[in-house]
Amino acid sequence: MRIKATVKQKKTVKIPLSDEYIRLDDLLKTAGAVNTGGHAKIVIQDGEVKLNGEICTQRGKKLRAGDVAEFESVIYEVTANEGKLS
Q: Count H helices, E strands: the chain?
């Protein structure tokens, strides 16, 4: 018996910085991944968010250009403030 599995492609969203850094919970809200700060707190503390390939449970973690967060099969790349949210 053969089982055919499909792998869901991960979408990438670039998040341009407007300051020196963005907090992880603010990144999720800015990107529209969560609706509220409370929801961001829950998903981060429950270990549902990866930062640079590792689970991160610090909602106030400062992300700078080059950092990559992942939540629900979406990759969020933090970039220098060269453009708008894509």
A: 2, 7
Give the predicted TM-score (pTM) of the model.
0.81
pLDDT in tens, 12-68: 999 999 899 999 999 999 999 999 999 999 999 999 999 999 999 999 999 999 999
CB 16 within 8 Å of CB 79: yes
CA nearest to 72, candidates 45, 36, 38, 34: 34
Q: Hey, which residues does 78 pair with through a beta bridge?
A: 15
**Nearest CA-CA partner of 81 in 16, 14, 23:** 16
* Side-chain-side CA neighbours of residue 38 (13 Å): 0
- Domains in the chain, start-ordered, CATH in brackets? 11-79 (3.10.290.10)
